[in-house]
Amino acid sequence: MDFKLWRPDGDTRYTNYSWGLPGDGPSEISVQNGRVAESTNGPTIDLGGANLIPAFIDAHCHILPTGLDLQKLHLGNCTTHDEVLNAVREQHRELPEGAWLLAVHYDQTRYDGVHLHRDQLDAISSDRPILLRHVNGHASVANSATLHAAKVTDETPDPKGGTYVKDASGRLTGVLLERAHEFVTATAPSPTTEEMVDAILAAGEAMASYGVTCATDMMTGRYDLARELEAYRLAAERGCAIRTRPCIQWAELFGPRAKPADELIQALDGERCRVWGAKIFADGAIGSATAAVYEPYVSEGGTGQLIYAPEKLMQMVRTAHEAGWRIAIHAIGDRATDLVMDAYEALDEPTRHRIEHAMILSDAQIERMLRLGIHCTMQPEFLARFGHSYRHHLGPERASKLKRFRSVKDAGIPLSFNSDRPIVAGDPWLACMSASNRPEGYVQEENLTYAEALEAYTMMGAVANNDPAPLGVGQPAEFITWTR
Ligand SMILES: [Zn+2]
């Protein structure tokens, strides 16, 4: 999509555009000191009839991880094993001594389906830890130095829900699956505060290049809450290209090891950076058959996993609610979604809370969600990216009805669109395309119009974030024009 993100810092009046969202928009936009104003003394710019919408708001993504990934070696363009190895070798030469070599977007299925072996990585370096993360986020390949750092040997038993892949002679190949991958990944040194600031700034640039100007980090506190909040504060101070809304992991606020973060939260400036609320996970994902569903997976049976027992979830929600927090809960499967709604229903006034993903919904659940008055976020880019995996795990019929945009919107539930990047590219244009013309394999009845999809990714993003409506008087002048 050929578009332009406008963020004037002076005084200007913009005329002659066509409002790109449903209904009537402002007929002209006056900007005074970079903010939308009633009127302006500045010159007039004729936009030549281009479409105009507010800038995108990505109210569910992972800002810091997006930026950290941007700093890692990217293997997504490699088309052979040799290209992967050459890229790793080159990076090895450039990195300072002792630093881990971390790569992303490794994908053996793009060559011949055969994983790299740790011996091939050891031939590049046997003392620098090397770890290539698979593009699906559920596997990686490590060299011997990485396995050594993680204290994994041929004798180490597989963790529950994971595999240290071994060859016929019982020797580790370096391939790590699921929990084994997570465990070894967690032994890599965590980023310094300065590295985090750089990552947030890089993520901000990358997101702004798609027209995003505000984003919510949906799991702040994965490394160290205090340093992460400080990094967000510093990034804002240093002119981060997006406004940021950290949403803090529940355990970091209320768990047994939680440290009070009130001072750090209050040190944020409020507009450029503001803590949104608390994040809870209720289940897993469809791609790993861990989303909690009613009907078993056709791929491997089972009905997925709840992260917490229902009573525990209910108590966590109550704790955060009573402390005055907003809550966003990840629930992908229909079984998890009901438990989340049970927890919200037990509160006196749940309307400030959100449900994230809600990928499988019955009509009755949609009615219930409306009754509760909660906000629902969905990620249309997933449809384009993971269709194959959804059909594999759920079968074509159930997969075709994932993400019921039209039913949810027509019911009157506040619905916003977001990316969840870095799981996907984070391209709002692709997302709005996927939501208004669902890819092959999905029912077309659940399409929104393109304008409605854009609205869900802009105006409704602000609703999701409890921010003022974009382009209202006093708000930052941030908008996008494009022509088809
Ligand atoms: Zn997420």
Number of discrete helical segments: 17
In helices, the fraction of residues equals: 25-40%
State Rg.
Answer: 23 Å
The CATH topology name of the largest domain reads TIM Barrel
- Mass-distribution shape: globular
Strand order of the largest sheet: 8-15-16-17-18-19-20-21
Distance between the termini: 8 Å
Largest sheet: 8 strands, parallel
Fraction in beta strands: 15-25%
What structural category arises from helix and sheet content? alpha/beta
Number of strands: 22
Give the CATH class of the largest domain. Alpha Beta
Number of domains: 3
Name the hetero compounds present.
zinc ion
Name the CATH superfamily classification of the largest domain.
Answer: Metal-dependent hydrolases
- In CATH, the architecture of the largest domain is Alpha-Beta Barrel
Low-confidence stretches: none
- pLDDT averaged residue by residue: 96
Describe the structure.
Helix content is 34%, strand content 21%. The protein is of the alpha/beta class and 484 residues long. It has an eight-stranded parallel beta sheet with strand order 8-15-16-17-18-19-20-21. The site of zinc ion (ZN) has 4 residues, from loops.
Summarize the model shown.
The protein is α/β, with parallel strands linked by helices and 484 residues long. It contains 17 helices and 22 strands. The chain is globular and about 75 Å long.
Quick tags:
globular; eight-stranded parallel beta sheet; TIM Barrel; six-stranded mixed beta sheet; 484 residues; binds zinc ion; 21% strand; alpha/beta; 3 domains; Urease, subunit C, domain 1; single chain; Diaminopimelate Epimerase, Chain A, domain 1
